[in-house]
Specification:
CATH architecture of the largest domain: 3-Layer(aba) Sandwich
Largest sheet: 6 strands, mixed
Order of helices and strands: HEHEHEHHEEHEHEHEHEEHHEHH
Number of domains: 2
Radius of gyration: 20 Å
Helix content: 40-55%
Strand content: 15-25%
Structural class: alpha/beta
Strand order of the largest sheet: 7-6-8-5-9-11
Number of helices: 13
CATH class of the largest domain: Alpha Beta
Shape: globular
Number of strands: 11
Length: about 325
Amino acid sequence: MLLLLVANAAAEEQRVRIGTIIPEGTPWARELKALQRDAESAAGGDLHLKWYLGGIAGDELEMAERVRRDQLDGVLSGGMLCERLAPSMRVIRIPGLLQTWEETAYVLGRLRGVFEKEAQQGGFAYIAETIVGPSIVFARSPVNDLADLKKSRFWVWDTDTVLRRMLPEIGVSVVPLPINDAGRAYDAGQIDGFITPAAAALGFQWSARVRYHADLRMGFIAGCLLVANRAFDALPRRGQQALRDAAAKTSAHWRETGRAQEEELLGGLFRRQGVRPMAVSNGFRGTFLGAARTARERVGAAVVPDELTQRVLSMLADFRAERLAP
């Protein structure tokens, strides 16, 4: 009986319960099942994953609280909890700072050690991250210039500390709401559109509601996999490595397929679904970037330390110079 109890306790320690807002039935959810198969196979019995999809464990902050109460062991975050536990990640969300997937991947890679240290201090092992995509405009009415942008009210995630602070400084009205309330708010006329990545607009079916989209990039969102230190440290070494390896593989695949999906959506799929693209003129983009730069200089330090922003600007200068070199 004693041996049986010890074996059951060991099995319980090897199980990792992870919550996420990713909806069931989406390509993301299928990728998680593949991650689970890869990790458990490589761990050889030293790891068992259990996913709680679709926000059934609450929003991301509620999931974090459940982790602290030992009701969950980790969270696959769509970005907001990542930024709460590793606040330096907010730098990629500052409007006007990053414009391409390559730039974002470069900055994330250079700062990964910072993110790991911050999450560790917050009680979590930082397992992996992936780029969800740039936040762009989805709207009920055409948005052809900065004046049009300022006329509308846009949904942003209620836990989004960056856009909630930065966009009003640019003059853009935002309505912060929980992610599961966004669609109903649009239907009720509380908001006129969404500031969100293309993949999220598709996954949460917001693209089925709006009439227009514009590829005006307002910072990138990166998700991450976080596991409580107590749960990760309890895993055998083989289980830890299996989880890290499988998550890294899935992260790289998500980044590749996410970029391809964005190109497909913005390149014509949204149009075929009835969502018309709005061309962003050089004048509109330049005016927005100028307003974003002014907002960053005025209040950026409230969300990201100036020294980190300057460090990233230096990284980007080097990265762009290398890309332009013959």
